[in-house]
Amino acid sequence: VRQAAAFFTAADACAAAGEWQQALEVVRAMLQAGSESTETFNAAMSACEKARQWERALALLHLLCEADLPPSSTSFNIAISACDKEGQWQRALYLLSVLQCRSDGDGSFCGIEATVVSFSTVVNACGRA
């Protein structure tokens, strides 16, 4: 638990400092250590989103799912925001559809619900198209 917290703290600091490359290195080290956490992935995704690295943010979301970690609504919202910032409205809409299509009838993906932030960010992205 301490190691996971240390990786999160490092990735979060990278995001705050605008060091997306270093955030990716933190994720690599975390995976090698076998101390994965959704929060660390989210912090690294946030670093990429802030640096307008939408492709890397989506790659981290994919890697998060491959690591058998549960994505959160925050995970999806960061990825949607990264797409929005770079005019990738189709991808933002796709991410929202993933939350809607993989539902058990209540609009959730593995217990994740699309939030007001999810919808408003996608609407914003589509409005810029």
Key terms:
129 residues; single chain; globular
Explain how this protein is built.
- α1 (about 1-15) runs parallel beside α3, α2 runs antiparallel to α3 and α4 packs antiparallel against α5 (about 75-85).
- The chain starts with a helix and ends with a helix.
- The model has no long low-confidence stretch (mean pLDDT about 90).
- By secondary structure, it is mainly alpha-helical.
- The protein is built from 7 helices and 2 strands; from the N terminus they run ααααααββα.
Task: Present the secondary structure layout.
Layout: H1 2-17, H2 20-33, H3 38-50, H4 54-66, H5 73-85, H6 89-101, E1 108-109, E2 112-113, H7 116-128
Antiparallel strand pairs: 1-2
| N→C terminal distance | 43 Å
Average per-residue pLDDT, rounded, comes to: 91
Listing every helix as H and every strand as E from the N terminus to the C terminus, the arrangement reads: HHHHHHEEH
Kindly state the percentage of residues in helix: over 70%
Query: Major sheet, described briefly?
Result: 2 strands, antiparallel
What is the overall silhouette?
Answer: globular
Strand content: under 5%
| Secondary structure: number of strands | 2
Radius of gyration: 14 Å
Task: Label the structural class.
Answer: mainly alpha
Number of helices: 7
The largest beta-sheet arranges its strands as 1-2
Poorly predicted ranges: none
Quick overview of this protein structure:
This protein has helices spanning 2-17, 20-33, 38-50, 54-66, 73-85, 89-101, 116-128, and strands at 108-109, 112-113. With 129 residues, the chain is mostly helical.
